[in-house]
Each structure stands twice: as C-alpha cells, then as structure tokens.
Amino acid sequence: MSMCLSNHLERHYMRPPLKGFMLLQKSLFQKVLMSITPAKTTVRSDYGTEVGKVELLALVKLLLESGAHPDTATPEGVTPLNFSIAKGDVSLVKLLLKHVADINTPNGIGMTPLFRAIQDGSEDIFQAFLFANPNLSTRCLNNSTLLHAAARGENDTILSTLLQKLNAHRDKDVEESSISVDTTDDAGEAPLHVAAERGCVKVARTLLTHGANIDLRDNAYVTPLIEAMSHEREDMVNFLKSQGANLSIVHEFRFLKMVDDPGKRAILYISLLQGLS
Description:
44% of the residues lie in helices and 9% in strands. By secondary structure, the protein is mainly alpha-helical. The strands form two sheets. It has a two-stranded antiparallel sheet with strand order 1-2. Strands 3-4 form a two-stranded antiparallel ribbon.
C-alpha cells in the first residue's frame, strides 16, 4: 500500500466525529490497512476514501471485532451511533446496535441517538432502534419528548408508531406511561404546538386522532391555532378551524410584524382575527 493512501485513510478515520472511536493502537490500524488491496482504491466525497468493496461499514466491522468500543465519544459527546444517524447510514446503525451500542446516552445537547433519528424523520433507522428496546420516555435538555421530535421530523408514520407503543406501555403501567400526546416541554408546548408552527397538517391530524387537546395553551397562553397563525401557516389554520379549535382566543392576541417599505421599515400591528370571521 502506498504511503499516500495510508496517510489519507489515517487522516480521514482519525478525525472528529470518529476520532474517539478510531483512536486505535498502531497494530490494529495496521490490521485495517493490511486488509486493503491497493489496486482497488478509489476516492469519493461522502466518506473520503473507499477501498474497493471495503467501505466504511467493513472497516467499522473490523474495528469492532478487533476490540474497539462502540460508544467511545468525541469531546462534544458524538458517538459512532450519532455519526451514523447523521449520515443516514442504516447498515452502520444496525452494525453498531448489533455490537450493543448504547442507545439511551445523550450527546452534548441532551439528545439521544433515538431522538436524533426520529427528528430526522428516518423510518428505517427508527425501525432498527425499536428492535433494541429503547427508552421511550427519554427527553432532550428542554424536556422535549420523542413525540416533539416526531412532530419536528414531520413523519406521521413514526409518530403513529410511537403513540401506539406509548399507549401500550400505559396499559401495562410502565415507565413510558408518563409520556402522553399532550406532554409539554419547558415552554409548555405540546407536540401539536410544534406541528402547528411547522404547518404539518398530517402530523397534527395524527395527534388529534390520538386525543391531543386542540386548545392547549403553552406558558405564554398560546394555543396551536395561535401558533399556526403567528407563523402564517394558512393550511394549518384552516385545518384547526375545521377540527373545532376555539376561535374566541384570537381576540386576546395582537402580534407585531416587521414589514419592508421602500426606504424604511415599518412596524405594524396585525390582528390575527382578520380572515377568521
């Protein structure tokens, strides 16, 4: 193997976010290099160096089987599992789970790998996690639940599966029963507030089907309808109206909106009641 390729591989696999995972003894790293045939070496942009059929998955498999710990994290708290989810690499996620990677440890911002996968809206990775018996009561630093993450991910299939499993746990009176469709974060927002802000009608419909309170107020007394209106989500406003959202609450709110004028910026008071009559 040429020194150039060796250096390229070392630079790639010894850098964050895999740095902690790939801090190997010299003999182990040499074992990786010796498994590669120089004639099959190509370069690509997504993973850096690809060596014939010996791609990242095969390299990680070799490292794991040689004793590398699957949960070694970078100083920022990024584990190989976090990295794999960010890449959307289902095969790598499954490999790490097979080697019992920790699925419940949060990263530096309090987000577990499962939380990240759900928020990214990856159904395949989400399904892989379900086989690992994850903790469904996990929360992020602001006390967001996995249901909040699903609403942000705008994936109603993941959301429906989560709700079904949480309901099943509630019937069995287990830990996850503390999480419901209306469980709020530190701002008092429920998943329906998140869906309303994003204008994701399909997620809002799923939440309401599972009993979400359409008029639940957050810490600022904002309901999902007000949330949708303040973010100009017309389709969501119409949907919530059709589902019986309380319109009288709109009288309580006036919002400031910045509007560009030629040569100046004017501040206008916008009545959110406009168009709701």
